[in-house]
């Protein structure tokens, strides 16, 4: 049976550590046939790398006017387009790095970039893609930050329709980065 694993990725060290953990511990790099001593590329499953971009909202702000009533700031749509483009480039870089990690371990992977609230989109994706396991990193938020910001992994642990594994990096991992 081929295992379908989803790993939620973002720019944090915690998510990349979780992906590394999954690749090292859940997928055997090579399957060996003991009958004839041959090896073949990993056919045990697939990793879906899911990255969620937050919804981008363009807000209208008053623009100061220069002489003769001419605005001297770029228009809101220009700023919004520039920010969207930067966000898309960042998402592509994150997905590319994660895909390369999978390729290096000879594990089949696909990246999926979604837009919206990360908590809800990850839970929806686990259900739609019918994954066997959701893996997430832990950012190690303190109690106060977690209370105000909420924890994506905590939300998913309570709402995802698949088993979830939250990978916490070792203490020395935080000190190195």
From TrEMBL:
Q: What is this protein called?
A: Adenine nucleotide alpha hydrolase superfamily protein
Q: Which organism is it from?
A: Medicago truncatula
MF terms in GO: hydrolase activity
Q: Which Pfam families match?
A: Usp
Entry keyword Hydrolase: yes
Q: Where is the UspA domain?
A: 3-168
PANTHER family named in the record: ADENINE NUCLEOTIDE ALPHA HYDROLASES-LIKE SUPERFAMILY PROTEIN
- Highest taxon of the source? Eukaryota
Record keywords: Hydrolase
Extract the InterPro entries matched here: Rossmann-like_a/b/a_fold, Universal_stress_UspA, UspA
Q: Which Gene3D superfamilies match?
A: HUPs
